Records
---
Amino acid sequence: MNITMIKDAASRLEGHARRTPMLTSPFLDKIAGRRVLIKPECLQHTGSFKFRGAWSAVSALDANVRSRGVLAFSSGNHAQGVALAAHQHDIPAVIIMPADAPALKIANTRALGAEVVLYDRAGGESREDIGERLAADRGLTLIRPYDEPQVIAGQGTTGLEIATQAAELGVASADVLVCCGGGGLTSGIALALEAEAPGLRVRPCEPEKFDDTTRSLATGKIQHNTGQAVGLCDAILTPSPGDITFPVMARLCGPGLVVSDEQALRAMALAFLRLKVVAEPGGAVALAAALFKADQITGDAVICTISGGNVDPNIFANALSLLED
Amino acid sequence: MNITMIKDAASRLEGHARRTPMLTSPFLDKIAGRRVLIKPECLQHTGSFKFRGAWSAVSALDANVRSRGVLAFSSGNHAQGVALAAHQHDIPAVIIMPADAPALKIANTRALGAEVVLYDRAGGESREDIGERLAADRGLTLIRPYDEPQVIAGQGTTGLEIATQAAELGVASADVLVCCGGGGLTSGIALALEAEAPGLRVRPCEPEKFDDTTRSLATGKIQHNTGQAVGLCDAILTPSPGDITFPVMARLCGPGLVVSDEQALRAMALAFLRLKVVAEPGGAVALAAALFKADQITGDAVICTISGGNVDPNIFANALSLLED
């Protein structure tokens, strides 16, 4: 992993990924006690930054390999990113999802042109076995969600934009809070900023009980979440940082910041009220940290990502009800 | 009014107004039956395009005149735009609002640095009398919400961006649907496109029962709304097109498109689901027309504005409930 891969990914993404704006609000500045710059990747195609990594990985494949198609395991944002990137490359995409995934997510992924293969979580064949068989039969290439260099390079293009936009706004030194699951976005942004804006330091943000990266950075080795991967912030609930992403984060990032589910919901409500963007719970943890963990942050300004906006309307309405206080 | 004024306004707004992105969604394309390009001015500072016109007007004043301050009548988006533009110019702003305006709007306007003067709608002094007295006493300059050349020039900068962004996306010929109240945004965009993208034709969009501009364009002379200016689409409920805006619209725009309140709410829900942006009811009428009045539109693509996102959370939750169907 290096900056050249990220810059090459940026060239391939040009005209395909959206250059998201950098948002600000004097109301949020007041809550945080410092300037807050917000990078809303919820405005990216398919509603999350995952489209960048998916496009980067698909576009980096050898044309002959690519033409046979790609494969992903995901019921969420990565699935939609891979589906759209494949569709726009005019190649097949097979997405393997649990049979009990929400009907809307299955329908959305199909509508983006992918073939969805459902498997039974409870028993029988594992998704890995299904994937291996399909890949062998059809010559599909697996696109991993985060522990994959070209995916990390794609997510890193967010960091190139942050470097440019922060400089335009006169911010050369600040913490950059990144919503962190497996660490693809976090490590990609960190590599980009190391090269382009060394005064900006990346800090991963996670929800309580799923703070594997924060603990991994604190102890210097990969830690796992205990218990089941079910929680409000579903988009960023991964068992542990990746084998590729963790060494990058250990070198460049930290310490982590941890917020409660209620703080994530309050950040979603404030993003609605003050920025007019839709954040999903996992996509709001970095803004929550900027607003509600201000004492753990230093400097006159803070930058944070909103990593996605694919949220159930009922959960969103629930977040809005917190505004009545 | 001419293109030079709009280009001059764009120079003054550089680095102050936000260049909003152009959004798209394959899901919305499918509903509309053609490509839909969406210009989300809800992402502008203060949550609506009104900041552009306010900044343009304030920045165009002679420095000595400006330093004495500005005045506006508004309980809505224009108030917030003028308040922030004045604050950033470090000059006083006085906003005259009805005493029964929502507490949040009064608080927001004060938080942006303005002095709010409340008046009783029911009786006593009119807001015009109060405004004239304050203007005379303190040398304040009135900033009208739409029938004011420098305000129209500021709103027209939206049109310059649309011309560039549509060309980048390969759209040279299309209807441009604009949420229309008094016609400041509509006429400004129309003037910009006349000069920069003559294949793009502006069509004003309005809610049912408040279709004064549509009827004015159909009959060739200014028509008024009957009854009270109370409705869901509060941001764009004006009694009639303006004396300056109407001749521009009569020359360049039309025919108008009219949508129901329910269609506006459905467009808000789809903007949430597919674009991850927050639209207010009046700000969603153009998207509603693009999606639900497709038979009144011609061409392979349509462009529409989302003019603002300052909406009560309860109304927004109400719109989201339509997604369950």
---
Amino acid sequence: MKWDEKLSGSVQHNNSLLCVGLDTDAEKIPGFLKAKKHPVLVFNKAVIEATKDLVCAYKLNLAFYEVLGAEGSLVLEQTIAAIPHDVFIILDGKRNDIGNTAKKYAQALFDMYKADAVTVNAYLGKDGIAPFLEYKEKCSFILCRTSNPSAGELQDLQIGSTPLYQVVARKISEWNTNLNCGAVVGATYPEELRLVRKILGNHVPILIPGVGKQGGDVEKTIRYGTNSQGEMALVNSSREILFASSGEDFASAARNKAAGLRDMMNTYR
Amino acid sequence: MKWDEKLSGSVQHNNSLLCVGLDTDAEKIPGFLKAKKHPVLVFNKAVIEATKDLVCAYKLNLAFYEVLGAEGSLVLEQTIAAIPHDVFIILDGKRNDIGNTAKKYAQALFDMYKADAVTVNAYLGKDGIAPFLEYKEKCSFILCRTSNPSAGELQDLQIGSTPLYQVVARKISEWNTNLNCGAVVGATYPEELRLVRKILGNHVPILIPGVGKQGGDVEKTIRYGTNSQGEMALVNSSREILFASSGEDFASAARNKAAGLRDMMNTYR
């Protein structure tokens, strides 16, 4: 199944644009889990079980698994296996390298871990991205405008009268010959999000981190990030949902937070 | 020991600016190794044993280990353990993320795998790099001008009259308050290398991939990449050395190729 069918299926089935970020910091999970074997996996499975009917996607940031060493690879694999087959899976690694090396990253993320989508960084230009785009059934979200405070330091540099992040947005349209490019734009920059959606048109998905702990506004995120059908935006929240409670009720607290966020998003669609 | 002491120690001890890239593609190693347990590890150990007196550094590109899953983490760890304590170790992952996540990557690469240096991508600006730079004893090589054919697609964009890669070089100087920044510049772009060395001055190391298979010129690489003392350049070759022979003599063939390259580099210092 091509990525866009799977994504629109999960968006419609769960009536949701919410992407839950399984950025599971092993140091922050509830203390009582830490004595268990593979505590991050136990935590992830509980969060997935509690939220799987509320989300369009899960996004796993690879840093939180890489830091676990060999166990991280196993936890990543088994977390992915615990996600229902009809929910979209994004592996967020922001990978970038020259062609023959980028191909290995693409194999790791798409073939081995079975991601539906990945995030990539375009600083190397088209040939560093191409090995990902060759997976025509999969989607590659290209960093455009990131959510962090110093995002503008390079991304706002003016090329003529166009900031770099908009040049990247135009490149994304140009590179999108297989209809499998997406963009990453932070919710913390709503005006930039509006301009990127305008450049990308209706058919390119935007992955939008930065609501929740980072402070992005939900209403503007939905109004500016979605296309004219109120779709093609995946709004990610991680810490706010994962660590809604540090007690034994962490999963139900995550569910409550996720449900509230999904419903709030839907009021603005 | 601070990174620059260790690096200048290995440069002087082995009289070498050669960095061997252990970008070990499991599909390309000699066939007779494939029946062994952990063939990539066996291969790496043999290459290290055959070249360890000829190099200033080894660079391990993480893509080739990530694609091996949990085994990759073990192979990475044990390859690093097989490198002599006085040889510089670079983990090449080109990682980039927002602050709290970049911190996890830094922990993984510096604390867990014990790298002396890493490569990072600066598209997110200072705060995505800062968690790496906080490791004051370690070095972070920031992508500046990459070696691939489409490098210029973004990196040559003109900011006023300055191309982006030179803006990044200036940022590297600005961010270098802990004296632990390096730059990555491809040997395939000698004029750009010359200009970046000029911007960075004498004390910032440049990691230079792209000689060998990618076609970078060794003479220009050394003349333009080193500082006024003929140091602070790490010239990486991977495939040309690793896969010099596909037979049982692969390690001695790697040694011959590495020795030739080191000696050629030294004639131009």
---
Amino acid sequence: MKFEPYRRKAYYYETDRMDIVHHSNYVRWLEEARIDLMEKLGCPFTETEKMGIVSPVLSVETHYKYPVRFGDEFEVRCTLSKFNGCAFELDYEIYNITSDKLSCTAHSSHCFTTSDLKPIRLKKHFPDIYEKFFDAVEDDGN
Amino acid sequence: MKFEPYRRKAYYYETDRMDIVHHSNYVRWLEEARIDLMEKLGCPFTETEKMGIVSPVLSVETHYKYPVRFGDEFEVRCTLSKFNGCAFELDYEIYNITSDKLSCTAHSSHCFTTSDLKPIRLKKHFPDIYEKFFDAVEDDGN
Amino acid sequence: MKFEPYRRKAYYYETDRMDIVHHSNYVRWLEEARIDLMEKLGCPFTETEKMGIVSPVLSVETHYKYPVRFGDEFEVRCTLSKFNGCAFELDYEIYNITSDKLSCTAHSSHCFTTSDLKPIRLKKHFPDIYEKFFDAVEDDGN
Amino acid sequence: MKFEPYRRKAYYYETDRMDIVHHSNYVRWLEEARIDLMEKLGCPFTETEKMGIVSPVLSVETHYKYPVRFGDEFEVRCTLSKFNGCAFELDYEIYNITSDKLSCTAHSSHCFTTSDLKPIRLKKHFPDIYEKFFDAVEDDGN
């Protein structure tokens, strides 16, 4: 399922002395886009959190292609690439709209846990959330 | 009472596109120095927190003189300038050791509260902590 | 002159272990709002920078009232309170729209310089910019 | 070649509302450790930069195991795992000394370029730097 990309401009304080956005900030942009995706998917973070579900980051991988500079507008195109009821994975493209270049590709993996980090099987305990993720995934994990 | 200043070098990711440390990071350095002072004072943050005492930031004021650059060593000279048992104030100088220049002067104010932000009178409830702050203050608030 | 406030939501990574936005991030929000104001004022940062004008931060003062939490929408109401052709000052209110509370009041001061930090008199060298700031100021500095 | 790990404590402002260090900050710690390694290797960042050599980040990969919390002491064990004269790769372990647990494993890749991002062959143009990297690598890339 395709969702509208997440968009904003790069802030001044996100740059470093090379006059480009510091590479660590891209990891923060992935999080912004992920939380935006959850909302578009019908599972806003703050609501699933109230239900006792969290989804800690297990891994992140970023590949840097072209810089983003102060004031550049970028979009993060985020896809739910895997989901098996216990865990999920996302693919990202950070696209620099101002320079018309692909700036970064990325990947992250997450699991579903209770707030004290015990694994959760969504299908059994939260079938509604399961359904929404299942419908959104590009690849059902088989 | 004088304490050893807090020292470290400026990190790469703390710089911005002007090739200087971004001014917001100085506010973080003040916090590093404040937590270091609490420890030197005999009231480590994590211990007072376990006793149920927190000290939220009420205000911060920073005056920027000369930049700090990547790799520069700096020290934060931190003084407890006021303390009245319910609240305290700190004065700071951020000194750039590498360039031998005063980089920033600053001031912050704080109160003592429970973790749900109710005011605490240290003298009554935590006389030991009261004593340590009282001994350390340069000006007793009168 | 009144400008539309700057608005966005607080990001997850801007929070700290107290479950509130870390106070240092407010200083970054002031910068976001300031750059937004420059654009609304007709003097976009990147354009004045190309003309050789920068406006370093001389001081910042923040007073914290009520917290902003993850996902809260806030606005920064920014006013040009002083301007004399060489320097300017801004007043800010950070208003938490979600909790309907004033979260922070702030003040910053800046000067106009060349990129190698020599003072600039706008009236003489950049009368167009001077005009725009002059029209926007609430108090003309007298 | 083994180098002393890079050590420090986690700062308060590095935590998030889960009461753990935000995962994006690990990427910054890798940079701190990398710059420290360059110095131990005899190629301090600021010196190679003066020679016109920079080493942009091409990719970063992080795997999160156990959290680091405010005040925890951690070390970053950094190894030069590949080097071919044009590019290099590093492996990292972030070890939480306070909790005695491996917190994160990571990997980054970099190339050598001029400051305007043209590729550099170290062996030809900077044989001294080449030598130092060659001696330090655990695997010479063949």
